[in-house]
Amino acid sequence: MCSRKSIWMSVVIILAIIMVISTPVFAKTVTLKCAHVCAADHPYEVGSLKLAEVVAEQTGGELVINTFPSGSLGGERDINEGILLGTIDMTVCSLGVTATFVPEVNVFNLPFIFKGPEHFQKVVNSQIGENLLAAGEKHGFKMLAFCAPVFRHPMNNIRPISSPSDFKGIKMRLMEVPMHIATYKAMGAIPTPIPFAELYSALQLGTADGNENAMTTLYTKKVYEVQKYISVLPVFSNGAALFMGLKQWDSLSLEHQKAILDAVPAFKNASNQSYIELESTNLQKMIDSGIKMIQPDVTPFQESVKSVYDDFIKDNPEASEIIEGIKAID
Predict the structure, then answer these.
(1) CA geometry: angle 248, 69, 52, nearest 5 deg
(2) With a threshold of 0.85, does the pTM exceed it?
């Protein structure tokens, strides 16, 4: 006969097994922070929300991406540093600032390197684009996509810009991107780096005479209120990159990594479509407000910045082949 003690032990074991079997198993929810500096209705956010939506659907809510627009977690440099520190997981960042952290990307910041939105998309979706995305891993980033196939156009309140000589003496507010500064110097302007948050007042007070950005940004920032002229002159790509910290990426399960990769096309389609639609609409709104539009011949401007290419290739000989590859893509 079994002892009372052994009977009670058996009962306890059976009850424990029943509890384990009957207790539902809940997967641990993983939450990622995706931060950027643009407004809550900007294409960056449109794409980020689509990414979060698709990822949540594919993982049954196990992987959550929370977005932080409008610079709520800092400027682009702050966000990228936060990603390297692990306090932020993901961002959509301008190519200008991305290249300060992933120098290989700087080839996309060359003036007039892209022929238009379609050319931009063909290039970034080619092997050239794939190679530059992969370069991020050397610097601590998992780069997922390039997006935003639009361009940065100059505005000013001094004179219409129809040729490089028209830039002479004009103080142009620029991002603190060496390629941008060298380009506008080559065209005759006076580069004036000013924080984006101070742009409107700087133009209003005359600290700067002009600025350059995508049509949508120029409109939403309302700088057309303190500018007179806009030239449809695609000096620089206003492209951006979606990326994570490599450590954060490696910490995800293979299933969660796959969910993000599978959602990247939806991110690109949403952000790209939003950008392209808004660009023409917002240019027209600025024209309707009284801004004078100029559509200059691009050729003289391209010739004026050849020294920028020469200097870049001198410092980065390997870029020569990439540049030729970009030009060869129709």
Answers:
(1) 55
(2) yes
